[in-house]
Amino acid sequence: MLASLNELMKDACEKNYAVGAFNATNLESLTAAIQAAEETGKAIILNHADVHSKFITLEEIAPIMINKADKAKVPVCLNLDHGASIEVCMKAIRLGFTSVMLDASGASYEENLRETELICRLAHSVGVTVEAELGHIFSSDIGVGNGAVQETLENFESAEDVYTDPSVAKDFVEKTGVDVLAIAFGTAHGVYQKKPKLDLDRIRLIRESIDIPFVMHGGSGLTDEEYRIAINNGIRKINYYTYMALAGGKAVKEELDKIKAGENVFFHDIPLIGIKAMKEDIVRAIRLFSRGA
Q1: What is the pTM of this model?
Q2: Is 269 annotated in the active site?
Q3: Which runs of consecutive H residues, i.e. helices, occur in 58-191?
Q4: N or C end of the chain: smaller count of CB under 10 Å?
Q5: What does the pLDDT look like over 33-69, one tens digit per residue?
Q6: Where are the domains of the chain?
Q7: For domain 5-289, which architecture applies?
Q8: Of 90, 98, 86, 102, which Cα lies nearest the Cα of 128?
């Protein structure tokens, strides 16, 4: 059943767990996420990232996502992930998404504030939830904690300019009215080359300043204990994609490696291998994130 992000966040806050948000880059990843949600009986968030339009456009995937969400046996929120502009967010809203993320974190603080406040007014007028980002959450090939910290930080005066500042977060939330906030505390998008350097206490400090759900971007690749601490400190939405996609790719490669020379390979069998592997990985993630529920 199609659900709003606010509904899911309310339950997660009350029961101290996090809802998994899984990217639908194609029909296979979408199917795997829905199957995993129904197997576990837990609500999920289906993301479509703006940057993934090279795989399938928002206009193409939205009707499929809505159809799958409507028919699901569990609550499913449809969220635009890392929307690059207000125009893209509005397009997602018109297509039926129940949540949008405007990512203006790369702009100045004043511009991020202005654009987020505007999309909040527009989205809230039609009952759509808004997520924003404050701080800098890098890709793992240049991200904090992966061995390239100096390269990343050379454009900043200190690590404090990279991580989300509690007092700034309070000002941002009060002035914009944003519903959920993606915060920077050391995670990064993509595959970690080295162990990330996390400031998990920062989540708690930000939570002491503002009482709204927080989002972890770059949510793949952490230890179970790190997830547990992050959730206990206030993380309520975890974006998880890289390692589920790797699980699907690895399974396909292993099966293809077994095929002997001269044997037939039918393309329609390949997606099924990927779906099964991704579903199993997502099931594990959902159970880990919802352990407190």
Answers
A1: 0.89
A2: no
A3: 58-71, 86-95, 109-124, 149-153, 166-176
A4: N
A5: 999 999 999 999 999 998 899 999 999 999 999 999 9
A6: 5-289
A7: Alpha-Beta Barrel (3.20)
A8: 98
